[in-house]
Write a structure and sequence with these properties.
Number of helices: 9
Structural class: alpha+beta
Radius of gyration: 18 Å
Distance between the termini: 55 Å
Largest sheet: 3 strands, antiparallel
Strand content: 5-15%
Length: 170
């Protein structure tokens, strides 16, 4: 394996769920160069690829489908904050989570839709049809959160969304 291909493989191994643009930025390589090496890594099954929400993410082969979907989401700061809140405080009402992490309810719901779809969170309804958010796999989620932090560009996008929410509400 070439030195560049080894760098790409190592970056994916240490940053599971990294998306293509982040690979290009982090490794300071041309997009075509990254594409070439990723194709070779995919063909020899050193790396796996999954599409989530308009982005292609790369993973070491040992990650299962649930982990791949979860990792793609926890790289987003808001989704990570939602999961962190539920881990710290336990089951919670959506309004409380939105208030505590500082996002609009619509932003929270956008992220919750994906967290529910990927089986990280479920919405339970009581007799009065009130929703409570519950983590579906708290131990697995904790392990993933310990290993992953969102990239700087992903943080900026999430913070911009929060700024817009604040301006719209204000």
């Amino acid at each position: 394996m070439s030195e560049t291909r080894t760098r790409v493989a190592d970056h994916i191994k240490h940053n599971p769920g990294v998306h293509f643009n982040e690979l290009v930025r982090a490794l300071d390589l041309a997009p075509g160069q990254v594409q070439h090496h990723v194709r070779r890594l995919l063909s020899d099954e050193t790396v796996r690829r999954s599409e989530f929400y308009g982005r292609t993410h790369y993973f070491p082969p040992e990650f299962d489908a649930w982990e791949r979907g979860a990792l793609a989401l926890v790289r987003r700061e808001t989704a990570r904050d939602i999961l962190g809140h539920l881990l710290e405080h336990g089951d919670a009402r959506p309004d409380d989570v939105a208030d505590d992490i500082g996002v609009a309810r619509s932003t929270l719901e956008w992220h919750l839709d994906h967290l529910v779809e990927r089986d990280l969170v479920r919405k339970e309804r009581d007799l009065h049809n009130r929703v409570t958010l519950v983590l579906t796999h708290p131990e697995r989620t904790t392990r993933l959160l310990d290993d992953v932090s969102p990239s700087l560009p992903e943080r900026f996008v999430d913070r911009f969304d929060r700024l817009l929410d604040h301006l719209v509400e204000g």
